[in-house]
Protein backbone atom coordinates (compact mmCIF):
# COMPACT_ATOMS: atom_id res chain seq x y z
CA UNK A 1 0.00 0.00 0.00
CA UNK A 2 1.40 3.39 -1.00
CA UNK A 3 1.62 6.37 1.34
CA UNK A 4 -1.00 8.20 -0.73
CA UNK A 5 -3.47 5.34 -0.55
CA UNK A 6 -2.86 4.98 3.19
CA UNK A 7 -3.50 8.72 3.62
CA UNK A 8 -6.69 8.50 1.56
CA UNK A 9 -7.84 5.53 3.63
CA UNK A 10 -7.19 7.50 6.83
CA UNK A 11 -9.16 10.48 5.54
CA UNK A 12 -12.02 8.25 4.37
CA UNK A 13 -12.24 6.68 7.84
CA UNK A 14 -12.43 10.12 9.43
CA UNK A 15 -15.08 11.20 6.91
CA UNK A 16 -17.19 8.16 7.73
CA UNK A 17 -17.12 9.14 11.41
CA UNK A 18 -17.57 12.92 11.17
CA UNK A 19 -18.52 13.76 7.56
CA UNK A 20 -22.14 14.79 8.25
CA UNK A 21 -21.09 16.93 11.21
CA UNK A 22 -18.44 18.67 9.08
CA UNK A 23 -20.92 19.31 6.23
CA UNK A 24 -23.27 21.12 8.62
CA UNK A 25 -20.42 22.91 10.39
CA UNK A 26 -19.12 24.57 7.22
CA UNK A 27 -22.31 26.61 7.01
CA UNK A 28 -22.31 27.86 10.60
CA UNK A 29 -19.67 30.46 11.34
CA UNK A 30 -20.44 30.56 15.07
CA UNK A 31 -20.05 26.77 15.34
CA UNK A 32 -16.70 27.05 13.57
CA UNK A 33 -15.65 29.64 16.15
CA UNK A 34 -16.61 27.18 18.90
CA UNK A 35 -14.61 24.46 17.17
CA UNK A 36 -11.54 26.70 16.97
CA UNK A 37 -11.90 27.51 20.68
CA UNK A 38 -12.12 23.78 21.42
CA UNK A 39 -8.95 23.14 19.45
CA UNK A 40 -7.18 25.86 21.42
CA UNK A 41 -8.38 24.37 24.71
CA UNK A 42 -7.17 20.90 23.76
CA UNK A 43 -3.77 22.21 22.72
CA UNK A 44 -3.41 24.16 25.96
CA UNK A 45 -4.40 21.12 28.05
CA UNK A 46 -2.30 18.56 26.21
CA UNK A 47 0.37 20.68 24.51
CA UNK A 48 3.14 19.00 26.50
CA UNK A 49 2.26 15.62 25.01
CA UNK A 50 4.88 14.84 22.31
CA UNK A 51 2.23 13.69 19.83
CA UNK A 52 0.16 16.82 20.36
CA UNK A 53 3.27 18.97 19.85
CA UNK A 54 3.63 17.47 16.36
CA UNK A 55 0.08 18.63 15.60
CA UNK A 56 0.47 22.23 16.74
CA UNK A 57 1.99 23.67 13.53
CA UNK A 58 -0.38 22.01 11.03
CA UNK A 59 -3.39 22.74 13.26
CA UNK A 60 -2.37 26.38 13.68
CA UNK A 61 -2.11 26.74 9.88
CA UNK A 62 -5.57 25.16 9.54
CA UNK A 63 -7.00 27.60 12.08
CA UNK A 64 -5.51 30.60 10.29
CA UNK A 65 -6.87 29.34 6.96
CA UNK A 66 -10.37 28.88 8.40
CA UNK A 67 -10.34 32.33 10.02
CA UNK A 68 -9.19 33.96 6.77
CA UNK A 69 -11.91 32.10 4.87
CA UNK A 70 -14.70 33.16 7.20
CA UNK A 71 -13.56 36.78 7.46
CA UNK A 72 -13.46 36.92 3.65
CA UNK A 73 -9.79 37.78 3.26
CA UNK A 74 -8.73 34.44 1.71
CA UNK A 75 -11.50 32.19 0.42
CA UNK A 76 -10.95 28.44 0.29
CA UNK A 77 -12.50 25.89 -2.05
CA UNK A 78 -15.37 24.09 -0.34
CA UNK A 79 -13.48 20.80 -0.58
CA UNK A 80 -10.42 22.30 1.13
CA UNK A 81 -12.52 23.92 3.84
CA UNK A 82 -14.30 20.61 4.42
CA UNK A 83 -11.03 18.70 4.82
CA UNK A 84 -9.63 21.28 7.22
CA UNK A 85 -12.80 21.23 9.33
CA UNK A 86 -12.66 17.44 9.29
CA UNK A 87 -9.11 17.52 10.66
CA UNK A 88 -10.10 19.97 13.41
CA UNK A 89 -13.24 18.05 14.40
CA UNK A 90 -11.28 14.80 14.50
CA UNK A 91 -8.56 16.44 16.61
CA UNK A 92 -11.06 17.86 19.12
CA UNK A 93 -13.22 14.76 19.40
CA UNK A 94 -12.30 12.46 22.29
CA UNK A 95 -14.18 9.67 20.52
CA UNK A 96 -12.41 8.51 17.40
CA UNK A 97 -10.65 5.40 16.13
CA UNK A 98 -8.24 5.37 19.10
CA UNK A 99 -9.82 7.32 22.01
CA UNK A 100 -7.65 10.12 23.39
CA UNK A 101 -8.10 8.98 26.99
CA UNK A 102 -5.71 6.11 26.19
CA UNK A 103 -2.88 8.60 26.57
CA UNK A 104 0.04 8.82 24.17
CA UNK A 105 -1.29 6.14 21.84
CA UNK A 106 -4.68 7.88 21.75
CA UNK A 107 -3.21 10.76 19.77
CA UNK A 108 -1.69 8.54 17.08
CA UNK A 109 -4.85 8.57 14.98
CA UNK A 110 -5.32 12.32 15.49
CA UNK A 111 -1.79 12.80 14.21
CA UNK A 112 -2.37 10.52 11.22
CA UNK A 113 -5.61 12.28 10.19
CA UNK A 114 -4.21 15.82 10.58
CA UNK A 115 -1.01 14.98 8.71
CA UNK A 116 -2.86 13.11 5.95
CA UNK A 117 -5.10 16.11 5.34
CA UNK A 118 -2.13 18.48 5.59
CA UNK A 119 -0.37 16.45 2.87
CA UNK A 120 -3.50 16.22 0.70
CA UNK A 121 -4.02 19.99 0.62
CA UNK A 122 -0.33 20.95 0.54
CA UNK A 123 -0.77 23.10 -2.60
CA UNK A 124 -3.61 25.08 -0.99
CA UNK A 125 -1.52 25.49 2.16
CA UNK A 126 1.42 26.78 0.14
CA UNK A 127 -0.87 29.27 -1.64
CA UNK A 128 -2.28 30.40 1.69
CA UNK A 129 1.16 30.81 3.29
CA UNK A 130 2.35 32.79 0.26
CA UNK A 131 -0.73 35.02 0.53
CA UNK A 132 -0.29 35.32 4.31
CA UNK A 133 3.31 36.56 3.89
CA UNK A 134 2.01 39.46 1.79
CA UNK A 135 -0.35 40.59 4.56
CA UNK A 136 1.14 43.17 6.88
Short key terms for the protein model shown above:
136 residues, 6 helices, single chain, mainly alpha
Task: Provide a descriptive summary of the structure in words.
The chain is mainly α and 136 residues long. It is built from six helices and no strands. It has helices at residues 3-25, 29-46, 50-70, 78-92, 108-120, 122-134. The N and C termini lie far apart (44 Å). The relative contact order is 0.16.
Short description:
This protein has six helices and no strands. With 136 residues, it is an all-alpha fold. The chain starts with a helix and ends with a helix.
Q: How many strands appear in the DSSP assignment? A: 0
Structural class label:
mainly alpha
> How does the major sheet shape up?
none
Q: Average pLDDT value? A: 81
What are the low-pLDDT stretches, counting only 5+ consecutive residues below 50? none
Q: Gap between N and C termini, in Å?
A: 44 Å
Rounded to an integer in angstroms, the radius of gyration calculated over CA atoms is 14 Å
The string of secondary-structure elements, in order, is HHHHHH
Percent helix, as a range, is over 70%
Q: What's the total helix number?
A: 6
- Strand residue content: under 5%
Shape: globular
